[in-house]
Amino acid sequence: MTSSPRGGGHRARRGAWPVPLLLLLVSLLVPLVAAPPAAASGDAAGPREPGPAHGRSAIWSASLQGVHGTSPDLTVRNIARASVSAAWLRVRVGNPYGDRPAVFRSATIGLQRRVGEADLVPRSLRTLTFGGRTQVTVAPGERVYSDPVPLRVSAQQNLAVSLYAPGAPVNDHTFPPPSPNPPGSFLSLGGDHTRDTGDAAYPEEDGGLSAEPGYHPGQLWWVDVVDGRTPAAGAIVALGNSNTSGHNATGGGDRWTDLLARRINALPPHRQLAVANAGISGNTVSRQPNPYDPTGQCCGPPAPDRLEDDVLGLAGARYMILFEGTNDLGGGEFAPPAPAEQVVDAMREITERARARGLKVVGATLMPMCNAAGGAREANRLAVNEFVRTGGLFDGVIDFDAAVRDPADPTRFRAEYEADCYHPNAAGHAAMAEAIDLGVFGLGRWRADDVRAGRAA
Questions:
Q1: Three-state DSSP state, 448
Q2: What is the spatial distance between Cα 417 and Cα 174, in angstroms, rounded to a whole number?
Q3: How far is CA 15 from CA 20, 26, 29, 431, in A?
Q4: Partners of 49 in the beta sheet?
Q5: ∠ at Cα 332 (326, 335), nearest 5°?
Q6: Integer angstrom CA distances of residue 414 from 350, 373, 404, 408, 436
């Protein structure tokens, strides 16, 4: 603001405000009049959605895999961990496998106060609405997004999505991991406890895979995506089986996707990418009968059939990691081992569809399976891995096989990484996360020659 020379200038008329003072007062009052009320918590976002600099992106996912029973008269508090910071959050709930509508009578979202406990950060609870209504009916085969809510979550902070839908078919995700870290859920005592900020109605004893009150590691009901407005530049979606969902990651620690997100969080916010996990235990990469379950409710649809819902339809998806094929090649009681060509053909279809939607696709090699050296199953695994490394299909390659195999016996995991013949433990997941060159996501430098050098001897 400029001023007149001392003693000069025009004298203000009697009863009028001096112009400089009037401008100052207006500048102070306009924001107070124009701004909506502030959100209720220091953890909440501001009152207006960010502009184009903060695009909408998935910040967490956990693919639904089947329907198991009917919900009792209780509340499920699903726990999810944000991979990047975001605000104006939306939640997707689904009834993809139900044979009747699922009626959600009440839904909320808040911030989990402590890992392993169901209470919420004070003043973080928000009511979820769907088209402005607090109740929503989801038809069989459908999924719906909530309206955005003004809640801010930090990277690596846990969200609590509470849903009350007594009598609804339970569409769920399970793996489970041997850890209190998310994903997981608390099942309440009877009734609607979606608005409870304390944990009195949520027992914390381990309830395993069941519908009993308590904490249930790896078990989620109905919720499969959280997205939000974020400074991050989009999302990486990992499409896989139990080695992505985290089954048997024993020994304490997070899954490789969670650890990858932590690595990316070290970058400036505008260079980060969210990480969404679309792993389902027992899933196959090709269209075939599931090797473990003839009912189709155990292990989700084959990857090509769930690609749209679990990857391509997610807001902000820019990269897909394709890490599937073990269950096809291994076979089981209800399906014989698949040949390498079947797995490669499925990888081609999935990659072409993703690329047609603008995603870049990063292929990952398949890890040891305790196959007999020189046998057909091991020959097929090696053939698939050779295609992943050198076939030229993918925009980038992650060599998980080279990262975890035993140099003395490449058909097995290194002893310190093995949980069982198909699954790495938590130390193995850490080795997998460290083996990922961030350059495959445009976050550094990536060289194909480095991956070709990882071929098995």
A1: helix
A2: 23
A3: 15, 18, 21, 76
A4: none
A5: 95
A6: 31, 16, 6, 9, 18
| Chain position carrying tokens 């997610």 | 314
- pLDDT tens for each residue of the chain, 457 residues long: 333 333 333 333 333 334 333 333 333 333 332 333 333 333 333 346 655 558 999 999 999 999 999 999 999 999 999 999 999 999 999 999 999 999 999 999 999 999 999 999 999 999 999 999 999 999 999 999 999 999 999 999 999 999 999 999 999 999 766 667 789 999 999 999 999 999 999 999 888 888 999 999 999 999 999 999 999 999 999 999 999 999 988 888 899 999 999 999 999 999 999 999 999 999 999 999 999 999 989 999 999 999 999 999 999 999 999 999 999 999 999 999 999 999 999 999 999 999 999 999 999 999 999 999 999 999 999 999 999 999 999 999 999 999 999 999 999 999 999 999 999 999 999 999 999 999 999 997 655 565 555 554 3
8 A C-beta contact, residue 295 and residue 312: no
- pTM of the full predicted structure? 0.87
What is the Cα–Cα distance from 224 to 65, expressed in whole angstroms? 10
Cβ 414 vs Cβ 406: under 8 Å: yes
d(CA 331, CA 329): 6
The number of CA neighbours under 13 Å toward the Cβ of 338 is 24
Return the residue matching tokens 């961030």: 438
Provide CB contacts within 8 A for 134, sequence distance 6+.
Answer: 106, 107, 127, 128
Other residues' Cβ atoms within 10 Å of the Cβ of residue 16: 8
- β-bridge partners, 133: 130
**In whole angstroms, how far apart are CA 301 and each of 254, 283, 304, 454?**
26, 7, 8, 32
Look up tokens 């008269």; give the residue: 73
